[in-house]
Amino acid sequence: MAAEASTSAAAGAGHGSWVEGMSADNIKGLVLALSSSFFIGASFIVKKKGLKKAGASGVRAGVGGYSYLYEPLWWAGMITMIVGEVANFAAYAFAPAILVTPLGALSIIIRHYVEGILGCVLCVVGSTTIVLHAPQERSIESVAEVWDLATEPAFLFYAAIVLAATFVLIYYFIPKYGQTHIMVYIGVCSLVGSLSVMSVKALGIALKLTFSGMNQLVYPQTWVFTIVVVACIVTQMNYLNKALDTFNTAVVSPIYYTMFTSLTILASVIMFKDWDRQNPTQIVTEMCGFVTILSGTFLLHKTKDMVDGLPPTLPIRIPKHADEDDYAAEGIPLRSAAEGIPLRSPRAAESFRST
Fold first, then answer.
1. Could you give the CA distance from residue 191 to residue 188 in angstroms, rounded to a whole number?
2. Do strands 342-343 and 334-335 pair parallel, antiparallel, or not at all (unpaired)?
3. What's the predicted TM-score (pTM) here?
4. For residues 307 and 126, what is the distance between their CA atoms, to the nearest angstrom?
5. What is the pLDDT of residue 62?
6. 11 φ, ψ to 5°?
7. I need a labelling partner for 334 at 20 to 30 A (CA). Which of 13, 90, 165, 290 fits?
8. Got the DSSP string for 29-58?
């Protein structure tokens, strides 16, 4: 009997430790994050087609045009993305950013599910590792608590660096290098995105508490976070559209995912102190999961390039010269990083030889 009771207690303890690792809120956040990845992954495909269709009859987004705003296909992709972002928004209200943000890699699987089985497996394994070792969501009773976290010196210093770097990129580097260096547009999106996620999480917590009976709309901090969310999302969407219109999606997606996720995790660790509630083993395991996701992400896009017949050593700091869907080349001259030789698409080269 004593042995049986001991065994039962051990089983109960094991069950308790699992529940502690995957709380009800974390599970809700996980489900919302997974559904968000599906919608956002699909929206990338639809928005990209809308941008190309709009660019064929108007001024491209990559050179400052907004003709895509009149394209129904782009709006269909935008609505799909909004649905995904709403689910993502809700996920941040229930689970820590270190759990929700890396799951964005699953949206890449939606886009490239046919190619790269190994890359898909790595993304799933890495995501599962992070989910199983994610920290508990911090217990917060008021949006004022989130404001206190956001106004601590460490996070204010991080936010100041992000804003300074963003302004330098927008007003100095984009006019000079926006059309030739992919990191310029993606840098703006990723930097602003890390602040956006922190504000989205704060606003999500405020709404969650409000719906549970503790009205947070009376706090001015709630509206400050709302303004920051709107400003950040508008900035992100603007420069992400420019990046997608100027460069190949197969290059944009993995770089953007890596920078955005890394900066978001850093911002969350600074502001919400996620790692203070974990031991070193859990932290190292989460980082291994994140590296596994990154490996799968880049492998997915490398596989796509090989399937599409693109050279595997293609430099990444160049505009796209061939569209993913066999659209005509955009006429942007490219140069080999090693030899300085102009590169042309097969159609352009054939036309050149015929003249």
1. 5
2. antiparallel
3. 0.64
4. 24
5. 66
6. -65, -40
7. 165
8. HHHHHHHHHHHHHHHHHHHHHHHHHHHHHS
Q: What is the pLDDT of residue 346?
A: 39
Q: 3-class SS at 182?
A: helix
Give CA–CA dist 334/248, Å, rounded.
13
Structure tokens, 294: 């990154």
Average pLDDT, stretch 90-111? 74
> What single letter denotes the amino acid at residue 54?
A
334 phi and psi angles, rounded to 5 deg: -120, 160
Packing angle between helix 182-211 and helix 220-246, nearest 10 degrees?
150
pLDDT bin (cut points 50, 70, 90) of residue 317 is very low
H helices of the chain, in order, are: 2-21, 24-57, 72-94, 97-100, 105-111, 117-133, 143-150, 153-168, 174-177, 182-211, 220-246, 249-271, 280-308, 346-354
Query: Is 58 buried (19+), middle (13-18) or exposed (0-12) by CB count in 10 A?
Result: middle
Is the per-residue pLDDT at 355 higher than 70?
Answer: no
> 10 Å Cβ neighbour count for 98?
23
